[in-house]
Write a structure and sequence with these properties.
The complex is a heterodimer of chains A (about 625) and B (about 375). By secondary structure, chain A is α+β, with helices and mostly antiparallel strands. Among the domains of chain A are: about 190 residues, Penicillin-binding protein 2a (Domain 2); about 240 residues, Beta-lactamase (3-Layer(aba) Sandwich). In chain A, the strands form 6 sheets. In chain A, strands 2, 3, 4, 5, 10, 17 and 18 form a 7-stranded mixed sheet that branches. Chain A has a 5-stranded antiparallel sheet with strand order 12-11-21-20-19. Chain B has about 375 residues and is mainly α. Helices cover about 70% and strands about 5% of the residues of chain B. In chain B, strand 1 and strand 2 form a beta hairpin. The chains are: A alpha+beta (about 625), B mainly alpha (about 375). Chains A and B meet through helix 1 and helix 2 of A and helix 11, helix 13 and helix 14 of B.
Chain lengths: ~625, ~375
Amino acid sequence: MPHSIAIKDQNREVRIYGARVVLAILIVLALLSIILMRYFSLQITDYEVYKVQSERNRVQLQSLPPKRGLILDRNGILLADNRPSYVLSIVRERVNDLEATLTEIQALLPLSESDLDNFHKKLKWSRAYETVPLRFRLTEEERARLAVNRYRMPGVVVDARLLRHYNHGELFSHSLGYVGRINERESYGLDEEDYRGTFHVGKVGVEKYYEDILHGDAGYQNVETDAHGRVLRVLERHNPTPGANLTLHLDIAVQKAAFDALDGRRGAVVAIDPLSGGVLALVSAPSFDTNLFVNGISSVDYSALRDSLDVPLFNRAVQGQYPPGSTIKPMMAMAGLQSGLVTPETTVPDPGWFRLAGDSHRYRDWILSIRGTGHAPEVDMHMALRESCDVYFYDLAQKLTIDRMYDYLHPFGFGELTGLDTTSERRGVLPSTRWKREARAQPWYPGETVSAGIGQGYMLSTPLQLAVATSVIATRGVRHPPRFVQSINDEPVVVPALEPIVTEASYWDALYNGMRSVVHESKGTAMALAQGIQYEMAGKTGTAQVISIAQDAVYKEDEVDERHRHHGLFIAFAPLQAPTIVVAIIVENGGGSSAAYPIARKVIDAWLLGDAD
Amino acid sequence: MGDYVRQLPQGSSDMAQAPSLAMRFHIDVPLLLLLMALTGYGLFVLYSASGAQMSAVIRQGRFFLIAYVLMIAVAQVSLQRLARWAPWLYAIGIAALVAVAFVGVGAKGAQRWLEIAGFRFQPAEIMKLTVPLTLAWYLADRILPPRLKYLLGSLALLGLPAFLILRQPDLGTALLIAASGLSVLFMAGIGWRYIFGAVIVAVSSAWPAWHFVLKDYQKQRILTMFNPDSDKLGAGWNIIQSKTAIGSGGWGGKGWLQGTQSHLDFLPESHTDFIIAVLAEEFGLRGVLILLALYLLILLRCFWIGVQAQTSFGRMIAGSLTLTFFVYIFVNMGMVAGLLPVVGVPLPLVSAGGTSLVTLMAGFGILMAASTERRMVAV
């Protein structure tokens, strides 16, 4: 380039510079306007959106779980209450690396497989920013260790919760039932808002039946939290409504007497107050500690319970269906009286066996193998009840026919749910021609009527049903559905009585006398009970065959495998003048009713005499 | 030109009749007052942003003190001397950047610092001033607008440090340094064909840059800007929270110390890069307008200083420093409001921190040197 041109032209430079400055200012203004428009749009146009967003950041709606209602026995003794327990929970959204955090926690305190399992399951269907429980019942030491390390574990929360506690877990397992952690299936059926902060729900028994009442209504609070989820202050609080307290008819002394009297044998005891239908005791043995279920039972404990031959989880009192055996005889007697086929004075010849016309099969009386003969040449109702004469009831059943038997026994509650306020009750079987046609698609054979007359064959009843049927006798026909709950928050629960059995008073007298003689007369099948008794009791023994015995074969108790022995049954009510308690007892494989009736004495003693010991 | 121009002969000018204290110490009073207003406003916001901790304010106040002293000290250095120093500073700066690449220390995968006798500094920071100074020096004696040869020379001078910084990697600083250099060229009056050419090249190089130059985390930042909700708890968190802070401030703001986003820790970096969000949340759009007004007045004053400058060097360096200052404002406010990707650029003179403050105030020192020079040569 020629050098001559290389002279700086100051004026031109200043002119160009001035133009560039003007341009630069225009660009600056333009870009600042863009910035300003952006801030205007955020702060003015979309103000509401961001205001809400920032409030949502700041304010968190926390659910306040209600306190679960207490469960008390009839004397106000606590059976189920709530105890503070420290729970370790995790807020997924605040945890950076979940697996790493879990590993860190595991270094501080033990986490069982079921803890992790439950946690992961619950995590899957938890809502955003919800605390998901990981470990319940932290010890002091575990809490301290967590507190020291919490700063490096964001999203890990330890807070105090009230957890269900059963003061007599094993004693009331089959009457109260228990609560357990809410599982996925259950969560769909629960009110989302009410259960937002609740970890547990009634699983069986009274706890489940009264879940709505026991749970209460959740409250909520608006809390100000920082970005780390720490609660800074409570802005607004609506307290939860605690669940209602339930006072049961159960009497802990009677329950304990029944439980102790069964003494670990497989069986069930149901005691009812005939005047109200209130259940005074309901025991199924063997039992288990319901507290195990509250925090998620370990798989080892659970399989031990599930796989036990004694099926402790099975509620024999309401689910166990047994042939009622001879305990059906008082009801059968009433059927005979009501039908007009017999009077209390009617007698039946008893050679020790019964045979249907045109059939060679002999239906044996239980006494035949002992005495080689019948109870007496002629047996009336009183004797038939006292000595549990089979032939009398074979004959009566045959005359009644199965369908009329059904009609007369049905009002006693057989073959129907009793309507007890609990779960998983079963209805048993009160056979009829229709039942057999529908259930078995088979015709009814006359021989089956004969067996049914002494509570064998198809007939099945739960101990609860037997107790209810017995209470109908005790009340002379008044039918109260059985109930656990006496009052809710001290408000008595009134359950309307069912349509009564209306019949001649003398018929009831005949039943009363017959059943009284079982205990109080010298040939009564439960006469051993009368020893030293301070009140009058009516009862009826029963034996239910577990395996059928061949024609003319003799059942010898000590030669039979323990689990093939007969079930022993007994029903009773007392005091005779004005019954206030009815019991039904079954002892599985007890050999006979003698295994069952001593239990009745102990239970009734506990109720009528108080602490006899 | 020599130093004599600065030594005002007595009575040779009307303006020199009573050389004021400000004149004697090369201080531009309007600019100084505006800067003090801005830094004072900033301290208020900082007190809140730091969680009402006086210690943070005192710390920042100490930085301000140092920075103001430095500004006045720099103002005493004549532009001629600065121009002479520029190439040496440049050489030292390049050497330091090369050293960083080999013996530098860093964090989070970036190597940006040099440690000498326990004292850490970022060579890239020095380059923010050195690059425009060097370019202005390089072009000052040429005919302006510069011819292609010098233009290419300038680009080489600019490209070397930008490249070194980009490799650290520090995309934000590299772009800022490039901007400071390019603004020198712009103020030097380069022809429109070059400007449009550059724009075309920039746009067409976006695709290869995306695939071959940008690192994954840089791409992520850009993607996050367009769709912060895609990663609500990760990279998008900052932007969502800062937008929420700004938006929820509304017109009047939530009140000083009342910002929930910042005080409850939702807003990240609330006292450094994201401090504008605290200001916007607590003082509302009103507060943002006041800040923008202060910035605009400072910018206009600085442009005026440039217009009044008597030498090519003075004009170019004044114009460039002013534009660079604006780029900081624009990038920071744009990034916090979700307009631009997140790059580590503080809000000038408001964000807590000493490094950028020192650089900026040294720049204002140069501007003040330029502002007082003009009157002295107006013979």
